[in-house]
Design brief:
5 strands, alpha+beta, 275 residues
Length: 275
């Protein structure tokens, strides 16, 4: 049995692409597992508190909370979230969403840098689509609706508009992961065996992996940007903020190029020589 050292490169590249793609899909699937690798995070710690430049008016409920609070801005934010019965943030992932509170405080200053304390993650599902309005409404104080908080309909319309894209994104990740997994197996076989047919099949699998992961990365990035822009544009007036998942974007954008390099390596593997 002859070991082919040059076949180790496709093997390592397949392994890296597979790990990155799997991390993208399963990040946040349970508490404590890559919770910071989210698509985006909605900051609802000030939800319902209108900005000074807003043309809307406070709901009677929010006005009553503000008038009853005596203290600094940290206490104000904490008490609003507490009175609304909602969490400080909701982080969207591919399979589920997680929620929790900022510690030690939602407000950053010179000495305090808020960190996420995840308290719960939803049940993960292959058909999951993040619907923040539904998640928040399910937790709001009885008798209170999102309309009382001036929840923008354009945000909800935009989130529903990308539902199909989210489902397609998941399917593409699955195809890419399957193709990378098979290419990884082919690379392992290629270490000890040679053959033009095997090299051709491996190159084809690498192409499928690259194409699927590239499209999945493009769609996921597009969804993140679209929703983030909508929330920034229409949510700031009611105290709603958003943070893009730059760590997730980095992982998914790293998986596709790695599979492409793997494809090029597989295509350039030398053919076996006759004894």
């Amino acid at each position: 049995m002859q070991i082919r050292p040059y076949a180790f490169a496709p093997l390592l590249l397949s392994l890296v692409a597979l790990i990155l793609a799997l991390l993208c899909v399963f990040a946040g699937s349970k508490r404590g597992y890559l919770e910071n690798a989210d698509l985006l995070t909605l900051n609802t710690s000030m939800l319902g508190r209108l900005s000074p430049n807003s043309s809307k008016s406070h709901s009677p409920f929010i006005s009553s909370i503000e008038s009853s609070i005596k203290g600094d801005i940290n206490n104000l934010m904490a008490d609003i979230a507490k009175e609304l019965h909602i969490h400080d943030f909701y982080s969207a992932h591919i399979l589920d969403y997680c929620e929790g509170f900022f510690t030690p405080s939602p407000v950053a200053n010179i000495t305090v840098h808020p960190s996420k304390n995840v308290t719960k993650c939803s049940n993960h599902s292959s058909s999951f689509h993040f619907d923040p309005a539904k998640a928040i409404q399910s937790e709001l104080k009885p008798g209170l609706n999102l309309t009382d908080l001036n929840w923008p309909s354009k945000i909800q319309d935009g989130i529903q508009a990308v539902k199909l894209a989210s489902n397609v994104m998941f399917v593409l990740y699955c195809i890419g992961i399957a193709a990378v997994g098979l290419a990884l197996l082919g690379s392992i076989i290629g270490i000890v065996a040679a053959g033009r047919f095997g090299a051709m099949v491996n190159s084809m699998l690498a192409f499928i992996a690259f194409f699927s992961l590239m499209l999945a990365s493009a769609i996921s990035t597009g969804v993140i940007v679209k929703i983030s822009n909508l929330v920034t544009k229409h949510g700031s007036d009611i105290g709603l903020a958003v943070t893009r998942g730059n760590r997730f974007i980095g992982m998914t954008c790293g998986a596709a190029p790695t599979s492409k390099v793997k494809m090029a390596k597989a295509a350039k593997l030398p053919s076996p020589t006759s004894p």
